Amino acid sequence: MNFVSLPALQQPQWPDRDRLDAVARSLEALPPLVLAAECDQLKGRLAAVARGEAFLLQGGDCAETFAGSTADSIRGKFQTLLQMAVVLTYAASVPVVKIGRMAGQFGKPRSAATEVRDGLELPVYRGDAVNGIEFTRADRTPDPGRLLEAYHCASATLNLCRSLASGGFADLRQVHAWNQDFVAGSPAGQRYEQLADDIERAITFMHACGADPREFRAVEFYSSHEALLLDYERPLTRVDSRNGHVYDLSAHLLWIGERTRDPRGAHVEFASRIRNPIAVKVGPNATAQNVLELAEILDPDEEPGRLTVTTRMGARRIREALPALVEKVSASRAPVVWVCDPMHGNTVESASGMKTRNFDDVLDEVAGFFEVHRALGTHPGGIHIEFTGDDVTECVGGGHRIAESDLSYRYETTCDPRLNRSQSLDLAFRVAGLYRHHLSPALPING
Ligand SMILES: O=C[C@H](O)[C@H](O)COP(=O)(O)O
Ligand SMILES: C=C(OP(=O)(O)O)C(=O)O
Fold first, then answer.
1. Domains of the chain as residue ranges with CATH
2. CA of 175 to the centre of ligand 2 (A)
3. Phi, psi of 133 (to 5 degrees)
4. Is the CB of residue 369 less than 8 Å from the CB of residue 385?
5. ipTM exceeding 0.95?
6. Is 447 exposed, middle or buried (0-12, 13-18, 19+ CB in 10 A)?
7. pLDDT for the residue numbered 2
8. Ligand 1 pocket: which of 62, 110, 344, 347 to mutate (most atoms within 8 A of CB)
9. Which residue among 72, 138, 149, 285 is the one 20 to 30 A from 50 at the CA level?
10. E strands in 61-202
């Protein structure tokens, strides 16, 4: 299906067009990864977020890798998302819509097209779906065959996530078990244990009152990634036999990045033609007019749950840059979901030249997001973060007070720094406090 005519930014320079065409045909022949009906269901859940009745938790890797598509790594991310969701649901008393940045996040937009080391210039790493991270000409040359490998890794990831979501692992009665490998040394893990005790008591109480324990057995989990590589997204775009509508069935939700959100570019054109829920990332230089124009193109029917605006302003800019957007877009009555990505506006370089993010900046941006929405009477709809279930040392600060000098200890990301599990849980507790305070300002933010 080829319905994109406008220029596309951030696309790889594939050296072999015939091979690319063959890969596209293979992808077209493969089964979809998700169902259109599931995308509609997610849209319904996001409509509840837009109405202020639920909260979105979206997160996962900055860049998934083929080598990292292992059971342990996938389970670790799923478990972290689950624990964060439980903290938010219980401590903030709000239904949480859970979306993984998983099962397709294999392509990355980059600031520069090439990288130079010791005088040698090679294409920049654009994610495992495009090229390899090793600094060799062979690895860095884009290979269309990687799109197929991305599909198979996404398929395996989603398969495991679906099993984890419904096969007993996510049963709320396992709330303690999710923490077992983690609790001892981590302040956030210990705090989580207390919360798990409370939940266990509440479940026992409800059971005693006659509630059906099967109610707690499964969770709804949705997948998402940036719809960046159009050579991957197009062949996975299908016509729904129920109604003839077009969906990109590579994931439930697709987002458009800050670098490719030009209303006259191919990514927005593509997203305007599919019926999935769509998110668009918006940085500190976006004007209300930019967002309104995107809303008009992407959600002309003002369908609740269709459009999420994910702001990533940076802690220092959010309080000045966000209010005008929220005010004007709300006045237009476009029913958008407002989400805060506190990662992408807070990337800094450490003294040793590594990309990092300070946990306090992440927290401060989320706090600013809540302050702005509180002042305007609008709903702070959710957070979008980059995390992993592993004990990496990529972001500084948090409960374990990771210092810049610790970064090299376990710095494993192939692109941007992620929160580790402890920092993610810590963030969930802080967000729950902010949410409670948002609803009842008499309650303390850190309670
Ligand atoms: O994840 C976001 C972008 O892909 C990333 O920040 C780009 O990084 P770069 O500026 O090193 O290219
Ligand atoms: C590239 C990303 O973000 P942004 O478009 O906001 O820079 C991302 O989320 O991976």
1. 17-170+218-439 (3.20.20.70)
2. 32
3. -85, -20
4. no
5. yes
6. exposed
7. 61
8. 110
9. 285
10. 96-100, 114-117, 120-123
